């Protein structure tokens, strides 16, 4: 039999036990099985071993879901961990996001509870469920908060074992998405001592994960570790309400048994620095190491070019993506750790360029769909672990992720099944937006969040999100061979209302959003694009948009052939702008143009699309691979690889050379003018354009100019 089980102390209403529950079972094995599979999950976060060996590479399991409705399990092959005779399975369970009680002395973004930590475990030996009898006690982790930190007292003796409580729990669900795993170990790069006995360890880069402590000292010595992204003017770790949140700290109390190694197990931080006090001896370089964690989505993309600033930006964006690629895509790995939905579609391109996220997004979209309310609303965060108010709960550019992200998944991977699975929910969401519209216009939400120029009307950004969702639903219905006519007609009515309401565009965002939607009359498009260009130039080649307007600005400029303008706005020093972000000393992408807030946000990372799609020229449509590199600025070479395709160009003394490796048919478009030398088997399809099949291809163009 398999059951949810609990710990008696934790199951008492209103109790605050002295430590987290630990569960243990012993069982005898005669002849070793051909296969042993341990199925595990918890309401909370679990850490499990079989005969002292970790059950697998996954950490911080299970992933985010609405824990009151559904909890995800994983199956671990533990065959190699078993031996003949007595075997032991030990599982410690922490509260995680399922139970976030008030912690007055430590930081927390929210409070919530689906109930105390509980465990579900099932062992199958050669496919047959093996009966297990579980005992439970209180372990050595005396405190754990998803936000505020974790304490471990290694002096605690595990005693008072008693039978586990048989109880109930939520429904179980499997997953095909990769788990969170350790992907990199960082060494300390520098150690400072801002006051005697207090040390600050610099791990070199801002990341999400754990710090690992290695120390030796007397029994009962308590070491305190405070993680942070930045230091104050005196060299101490600075935890700020709008940055990492704070106060946050971890403690470890030594057992005094020699060299001891510890890291948190039931929460994670975003950090670069660790401030440590209580060390019994001066630190060594390996006293603190950084354990980088993220969902183990396979890396499939690489980009580099001759311009150091652009390479730095690409690295900042990628690190921020990695730091927030947890069981859902979070906004930041410290202050909130919540699944804000706008980023999963606004920055889809850079995410999918760098990593294979097909299975990851399918599971993520299940979480989004489950958050939809009975009236069709898709809240701004999923899972909806707390209910925010106003635009922080209901913004069309956030909720429309339920429509836009499946469409992007289809465009990237040809995934029709996910479109079909969520099509009814998409209809409910568009119906919800329609019910809120007045004259086919919406007037609620967060506006162009993070904008330098905050004058873009909320009505314009909200209606943009509404129309884009309806336009995309029309495309999806067409692919699914459903009736698309209602959405085509509704799109036309919203577009007409948009044109009437906004006959002029007074901000960078407003003009770009209108052009992106296709609501600008054909006779006016060139003028609106030129108005956008003129405004950028008038601002000193700086952007004034936030995250909603940012992608459209870059895309309409690229579509209009104004890569020169994009180059200038990316590389021009000063605030606000991308070049400014590279001068702040950060090692991942900051939240806002001014560098305030979190230093590990990827919401402004959509410019990476321009690097890969235009500078490197890698473009994917639903049916084709198109390679169309752009030569701009001071670039002399660009190289990019993605999922079996490589584009690399070099420009030397007027000689442009493009090397292509492709595993599928592709269309090649060379830039500018000059005499072309093309491979014999490349099929010309137009001026400087060719069709090629799988293989390696080399194109040379003499007389290249910028």
Automatic annotation (TrEMBL):
Pfam families: Bac_rhamnosid (PF05592), Bac_rhamnosid6H (PF17389), Bac_rhamnosid_N (PF08531). Residues 298-614 form the Alpha-L-rhamnosidase six-hairpin glycosidase domain. Its EC number is 3.2.1.40. It is an enzyme of class 3 (hydrolase). One of its GO terms (molecular function) is alpha-L-rhamnosidase activity. Residues 195-293 form the Alpha-L-rhamnosidase concanavalin-like domain. It comes from the Bacteria. InterPro entries: 6-hairpin_glycosidase_sf (IPR008928), 6hp_glycosidase-like_sf (IPR012341), Alpha_rhamnosid (IPR016007), Bac_rhamnosid6H (IPR035396), Bac_rhamnosid_N (IPR013737), Galactose-bd-like_sf (IPR008979), Rhamnosid_concanavalin (IPR008902). Coiled coil: none annotated. Gene3D superfamilies: 1.50.10.10, Galactose-binding domain-like (2.60.120.260). One of its GO terms (biological process) is carbohydrate metabolic process. This is alpha-L-rhamnosidase. It comes from Kribbella albertanoniae.
